[in-house]
Request: fold
Amino acid sequence: SGYQQFVEQCASLYKDLALRKAAFKFVSTLITSSPDAANGVASNIRYANLGKAIEYHDGWAAFDSALDKKIADFAAFYKINFPKGDVNPESSLTTLAEEVRDAHSTVAGALTRESSRRNNHASNMQELRDSQSKIMLWCRQQRSTMENLKEAGQIQEYTNSFQSNITVMETNFLVLMELAEPLLPNKEVNKILEDAIELWLSLQVFAFEKLNATIMEQHEASNIEADLNRWLEHEGNVVSFLNKAREVLSMPVDDESKEVTQPILENCDKLLADIESFSIIVGHLSSFTLREANLKEYHDAIRRTIFSKLTLTTQVYNGQFSFPRKQEYMDRLAELNDWVDCKSQNGAWKQLLQRVDHMKTLIEENKSMHGTAEERGY
Reply:
């Protein structure tokens, strides 16, 4: 019947209003219960299920503009078709509509910011994934190229080129951190960063180990240690011979003989002066294999540390130390924008501009009074 249909329509609107009120009240509770609410920051809403609240907020303008007319149409329909009725829904619907409007106005600013943040989240996440994919693809290509290098000269040249690219890669990781920062805290984002950092560290370790292994191969193939050890065995004889040669070459006293012996004597002195430093180098090279074997245990320990969970985590959070302060700044800035939008509806913005001009004047006066830092010699 017509009455039954009318009741169902009124009940449907009442239910819709009640759901909207509950959703907005829920958001209001989240805001006031945020641990940083005293500072004007509503961090709790970032992690809550606000699907319906945001949906209601995004469509609020159209809903609100049609609400009064819909209630008035119900009231008029009731008066015409049920003049003797005593349950006109106009009063209860109007009261509930005002309560919904009040609840919405309380959380509108927060919902606008959160809706915008969530709408951007998907595209920001994709941009982060794309950036990470490029870094990981480059790392895999570099490793594949290094794995296929066989000649010592090629390996040395490639590792030199790789070293020059480290600064570029560090810049790429800073960009990756900047993309990730607005999305934190987030487990998926942490995983994206950890995977990229792990692959990058793995590439650097592989490059070092590849070059180190090549150096050892070249060193062993040269048989230089055996030759150097023979030198160390005869070093004393060489020094003794040079000293005796000096004695013999110093004997002549006539100018004609000195003209012959003096260049040779100078060469002996130069050799004796250089032999100590030369022996130090020879000593290091002759024990190179032994020292490398002794260092292997420490190299393995460093390798385990590099790929530990703690190292990867600290690398991820290395660029995030300022995240809470930055987030607080962004929240405050957003609230200030809302305040300016509200105040600009009247003449208050003129007073704000006057205050800004006054502050500029004070700054200029202070600057002229005390001078710049450079003028004070700081």
